[in-house]
Each structure stands twice: as structure tokens, then as C-alpha cells.
Amino acid sequence: MLPLLRTPFASRSLHSFTLTRGIPIPPVNLNLNPEVKAALKRNQPVVALESTIISHGMPYPQNAEMALSVERIVRDNGAVPATIALLDGQVRVGLSSKALERLAKLGPEAMKTSRRDLAYVMSQVNDRSA
């Protein structure tokens, strides 16, 4: 079973979220990379890395090289990198090298997403929902 996180306002596991007032929120389609999942199970440090700089901050191939370099630095310092992106209607936590490369090649064609856009982007399953 995946860990349960408790905050003053909510109880949540990696697959469901319920407000403390008992109002259920549908589970998020969360896709954990096997390396990230294993690190969390072993209580090892995991560093979340956002993906906007990959898709919108640098041109290809420098964006892919930079992302791989940052992940290598995280690993060299004893943690597991977890680059987070929305791909194929899923929240991906920890990208495979293939997914990272795909996001890097999409570049600005990937939809830049804020909280306001999250539901819409999650409902889109195409190359632009990266």
C-alpha cells in the first residue's frame, strides 16, 4: 500500500483524495515511475522537478540535455529525481528517458498548464497534452 499523507485539511494517498469534511474527490490518474515508486516505498529521498523549462524554457536538444543533467545531479547527491509532467491525460511523476525526450521534442507545442487548466488538459489525450 502506498503511503498516506495527512494535513490539517485533507487526507490523501497517492490514488485518492478526501477532504476532512468527508467530501470525496475523484482519484487522480497518477502514474508513478517504477524508480520513484520504489524509492518512496523504501523511504528514500525523492526530488520533484518541474517540466516547464523542458517544454517552454529551452530549445531542443539543449532542453533534453539540461533535464538529464539535472536528474544526474540529483542522483549523484543520493536522491531519486521525479520530473513531473502531464502526458496522455496522466500526471507522470518521474519520466522515462523516452517520455522526457518526447516532451523535449514537443517543446512549445506542449500545452503549458496551470491549476486553472488542469481538468481540461487532463481530459485531452494527444501529443499536445504533454
Automatic annotation (TrEMBL):
One of its GO terms (molecular function) is hydrolase activity, acting on glycosyl bonds. The keyword Manganese applies. Keywords: Glycosidase, Hydrolase, Lyase, Manganese, Metal-binding. Coiled coil: none annotated. The keyword tRNA-binding does not apply. GO terms for cellular component: cytoplasm. InterPro entries: Indigdn_synthA-like, PsuG. Pfam families: Indigoidine_A. This is Indigoidine synthase A like protein-domain-containing protein. It comes from Jimgerdemannia flammicorona.
